[in-house]
Design goal:
alpha+beta, 5 helices, globular
């Protein structure tokens, strides 16, 4: 009888990290992190599913009133703003992470485009702070089974509601992980 082997996906730009269900960290509890960079210098990503109830022009003074969602991107540099978008080359200096999703670019141009209503809220997401790992740090966390690396498409990333993204991402991991969605938020309550 043959057994199916689960393919292990390595961290890389455009992959996501899905947190194990009992991670207690404030920033990473049941989080999904999109990796924008993973190289010999370390790893940079943004938590995709931690929506905060604050308006963009409250985060960055001088920004026009704009209804794009603002998320908590992670515990590093929480005094800085980061963004992903679907606008590609319309925003110079942006970098494609996965097909159809870009990271960063000229923030002054973004502000101007928002002012002139050339960007819709569905085109862009803003993040306060980011998630970062030093060289080998993420590898150790993966060995401890704190995260599972997975693929995601732009559509799955943008169409998922933040409060459902972790569960939906777990379901995409395969049968081995399906029981995670039924685990209680606090294992002590089980």
């Amino acid at each position: 009888m043959s057994t199916l082997k689960t393919q292990i996906i390595q961290p890389a730009k455009g992959k996501i990290l899905v947190a194990e269900p009992f991670m207690r960290d404030f920033y990473f509890h049941r989080s999904v992190v999109l990796l924008a960079e993973h190289n010999d210098d370390g790893t940079f990503g943004l938590v995709m599913n931690k929506l905060v109830q604050i308006k963009l022009n409250e985060v960055v003074k001088g920004f026009p009133d704009f209804e794009a969602p603002v998320y908590l991107g992670g515990p590093v540099k929480t005094d800085s703003l980061f963004f992903i978008h679907t606008l590609g080359e319309l925003i110079p200096e942006s970098m494609e992470i996965i097909k159809g999703i870009y990271w960063g670019g000229d923030i002054d141009l973004v502000q101007e485009m928002i002012f002139h209503k050339k960007i819709k809220p569905a085109d862009i997401r803003f993040y306060v702070g980011y998630s970062g790992w030093e060289v080998n740090q993420l590898g150790h966390e993966l060995e401890e089974h704190s995260w599972v690396v997975s693929d995601i498409t732009a559509k799955e990333l943008l169409k998922n509601q933040p409060q459902k993204m972790w569960k939906n991402s777990v379901k995409l991991l395969g049968k081995k992980y399906h029981e995670w969605v039924n685990y209680p938020l606090d294992p002590v309550l089980n």
